[in-house]
Each structure stands twice: as C-alpha cells, then as structure tokens.
Amino acid sequence: MRTLCSSTLIGEFFVIGFAGLVAMKDPDLAMSTVWTVSGIAMFLCLLLCGLVTRPGGVALGWALQVALIASGFIVPTMFFLGVVFAALWWASVHYGRKVDEAKARFAAQAESSTPDAA
What we know:
This protein is an all-alpha fold and 118 residues long. It is built from 4 helices and no strands. Helix 1 runs antiparallel to helix 4 and helix 2 (31-51) runs antiparallel to helix 3 (57-70). The radius of gyration is 19 Å and the shape is elongated.
C-alpha cells in the first residue's frame, strides 16, 4: 500500500506546485499567501508518504484529498484534478491493501511449507 499511496502523493505534490503557479496569476491573491498554502500542502504530501502506513495516515490522506478538491474555488481546474486524485487515492488504498494481504498470505504459505532446519 505504501508504494501506491506514496506515488499518488508525489503526483499531488507536483500538481499542487503547478496550481500554485496558476493561482499566482490571480490579482486578488497575495503571492506570499499562495506559496504559504501551496508550500504547506506540498510539505504534507511529502510527510504523508512516510506516515501512510501509520494509524491515521490514510485519514490524513483523505483530508488532503478534500482540501485539493476545495482548492477548486481558487483554481477551477482543481475541482477536476482533485476528483481525479481522490479516485487515485481510493484506488491506491484499496488495491494497496489487497496487495499487502496477498503478500502476507504468500509469506505465510511459504513459511508453512518450508521444513524446519532444526
């Protein structure tokens, strides 16, 4: 699960950075505000790459997805990209857990079929 979720988060890291560049063009927004918010969101993406397998990591990832969709109020394209990344996040969590379960099952089978070397 960690690999799939981290890949999604790294993709979001870049999308948030590009959205910051687009938001910079809005004359109603201060550049410092845009880059503070974008920088915090980008940092959270990187931080979550390490926390995704810990308790609450997936929930924080979902909170980031909601924030990404909500950023569409500033950069309208982010409504679409936020939904796309939320779908990718769901797929990463769902299929990542299935892969982890399969790996554990295969490891248990391999351990039980190996004769003891005692």
